[in-house]
Design brief:
Blueprint (H helix, E strand, L loop, with lengths): L20 H10 L6 H11 L5 E2 L1 H10 L6 H13 L4 E5 L3 E5 L5 E6 L4 E6 L23 E4 L5
Helix pairs in contact: 1-2, 3-4
Organism: Bosea rubneri
Pfam family, one: FUR
Protein name: Ferric uptake regulation protein
């Protein structure tokens, strides 16, 4: 399993914060989701390790290792329910790859090309000076900046 929250100063936190099952249940209830056994189990796997970025496949693999009886479809559905409820942020990378971020606060991301690696960038580190006005009848919900990185051969 890849822990996609690197230990680089100023970019995310790798501290394991812990999240007991009753905390997951309360978190789900607060956002209007019924705390089913599968949601609580997947929520515990997601949030027990602090802020991080996971794909559905990574969470499914963690669930299998933890002997949580869920299908990949259930993992996808749960991640989308958590995202709609505001517990996660969805990051679509290259159209085919999607990560879910357990830190739902405003911030941006580095993505390492060719790797399943996403690194947080604090919102204050990115200056978006001017945005175009949205079309009539719309408002800007948020700005997501994705900065792509590649390893330097050397």
């Amino acid at each position: 399993m890849n822990d996609l929250t690197p230990q680089e100063p100023g970019y995310g936190s790798s501290a394991r914060q812990g999240c007991p099952f009753h905390d997951v249940r309360q978190r789900l209830r607060r956002v209007g989701l019924r705390p089913t056994r599968q949601r609580v189990s997947l929520g515990w796997l997601l949030f027990a390790k602090g802020d991080r970025h996971v794909s559905a496949e990574m969470l499914f693999e963690e669930a299998m290792k933890a002997r949580v009886p869920v299908s990949l479809a259930t993992v996808y559905n749960t991640l989308h329910q958590f995202t709609q409820a505001g517990l996660l942020r969805e990051l679509a990378i290259d159209g085919a790859k999607t990560f879910f971020d357990t830190d739902s606060s405003d911030h941006h991301h580095f993505v390492v090309d060719g790797e399943d690696k996403v690194i947080d960038i604090p919102a204050s580190a990115v200056d978006v000076a001017e945005l175009p006005p949205p079309p009539q009848g719309y408002e800007i919900a948020r700005v997501d900046v994705v900065v792509r990185l590649r390893k330097i051969d050397g």
